[in-house]
Amino acid sequence: MSNAILSSSQYQNYRRIDLIVIHCSATRCDRPFPLEAVIACHRARGFATVGYHYYVTRDGTVHAGRPLYQEGAHATGYNRRSIGVCYEGGLDPRGQPADTRTDAQKETLLKLMQRLKKDYPHARIVGHRDIPCVAKDCPCFDARGEYEYL
Ligand SMILES: [Zn+2]
């Protein structure tokens, strides 16, 4: 994992961050959905570029999305104060919501959460579905519970 991508401290003063929101791409785990596809998808929805700040592909690579000083487009009503992190997957081969994270993705997500908590100690880590009024399965695992100890 590249330190350049993870060094977020320099941007801390640009926005007040108190929330880290984890998402899944809601794509089938047996079909590749690279960052380029996310970008194309989000542009089609009218966003300038990818709406997340980090995107973790199935091989465990963390890809830089929007710079942290920029507001994301991933959680309506919460973008101004949050960081958006997404992992590739979230649907099983039949298209049903499932925790499809690979071991590599779990490891990378944990490292990323540890790093972000270091930079933003007061930020809470939640799953997209933990946000009030979000009727989605995203990110298809209990992110709040899993990272609560950090
Ligand atoms: Zn989501």
Structure overview:
This protein has one domain: 3-Layer(aba) Sandwich (Lysozyme-like), CATH 3.40.80.10. It has 150 residues and is of the alpha/beta class. The longest helix has 17 residues. A five-stranded mixed beta sheet has the order 4-3-5-1-7. A two-stranded parallel sheet has the order 2-6. The protein contains four helices and seven strands. The radius of gyration is 14 Å and the shape is globular. The model has no long low-confidence stretch (mean pLDDT 92). Bound molecules: zinc ion. Zinc ion (ZN) binds next to loops.
Task: Supply the helix-strand structural class.
Answer: alpha/beta
Average predicted local confidence, pLDDT: 92
CATH architecture: 3-Layer(aba) Sandwich
Shape descriptor reads globular
Strands of the largest sheet, in order across it? 4-3-5-1-7
Please write the string of helix (H) and strand (E) elements: HEEHEEEEHEH
- CATH-derived topology: Lysozyme-like
Fraction in beta strands: 15-25%
The counted number of beta strands is 7
End-to-end C-alpha gap = 20 Å
Bound molecules: zinc ion
Helix content: 10-25%
Tell me the CATH superfamily. Peptidoglycan recognition protein-like
* Low-confidence regions: none
